Amino acid sequence: MSLHRSDWLEPTRRIFLGGVALCCAPGRAPAQPVAAREAVPVLYPEIGEPFRTVFDKIVEGIDERVSVERMALPAQGDPAPLQAELLRRRPRVVVALGRAGLRVALGLEAVEVVGACIISPVEGDQRAAALLSLSPDPALLLQRLRSLRPAVRRVSVVHSVRHSAWLIRLAQDAARGMGIELRTLEAEDLKTALRHYQDFFAEAGVQDALWLLQDPATVDDATVLPLVLQQSWTRQVTLFSSNLAHVRRGALFGLYPDNLDLGRSLGQTALGLLGRQAGVTRGLQALRNVQAALNTRTASHLGLDLNPLQQRGFALLLPER
Prior knowledge:
- This protein has 321 residues and is α/β, with parallel strands linked by helices.
- It has helices at residues 34-37, 51-63, 80-89, 98-106, 138-148, 161-178, 190-203, 224-234, 244-249, 259-274, 296-301, 308-311; strands at 40-45, 68-73, 93-97, 112-118, 130-136, 154-159, 181-186, 208-212, 238-241, 253-257, 283-287, 290-295, 316-318.
- Helix content is 38%, strand content 22%.
- The strands form two sheets. It has a seven-stranded mixed sheet, sandwiched between helices. Strands 2-1-3-4-5-11 form a six-stranded parallel sheet, with helices on both faces.
- β8 (208-212), α8 and β9 form a beta-alpha-beta unit.
């Protein structure tokens, strides 16, 4: 499914960052932390509300961990002057938010790039030192499913290799560790995906659940989503999603970005790269800085009677009153 802007616009736990005193020779001033000496450029799209608030909140989180220099990318303008300025400055680390920012940052040489605010990687993205997807970590989704619907033993997911193969590998490992059977159904177009969904509902029982991805080859708002929502409601099948918009329309639950906490993670990664820390997590990562949303109407329809304590585990209860 293509990235819906509503998927990551919801309002967003502060993690304490311990300071370590740096020793120095007698008579010399203590060395400043890396973050105090060197500002990290943060590239983000210059865009109107309500989307600007999302990027502002992410940058705010980054700034809690490392000094930042905001560099807005014009929506319609030429990014070449900004890229030229970065080439002149030669920063050691750049944080890039969104596809446009990532494209500019990856065009720089000898720069460690921390990327975020993309759903799926494309060719060339592996050049980023760290890349945080907006796709929620499957382990977190499956843990939430198990707490809400312990009777579910099998989860089916329709996916395309092009967009979601990396996420499916994570899901398979997570499901195996939880004793959940994960049925992965490949589809490279909506017609094939639709057939998989129809076959799923023809056989689904109380032990089955369906997971919707943010995969444009397998989910769309016009054809697939209406069918899946109607069938899951009629047959009382558990439906959960990586897309908050689906929860608004009737999926039982989903996870969405905690923008401030995402920023903190990006800032911590940038700080680690600046300090050449050995423990920095590199490569493509699923999103773990998340909040949870629950559709209470769907929960009631499925016979789930959640007490107030259980409901407090969700940052967003839908439909909103």
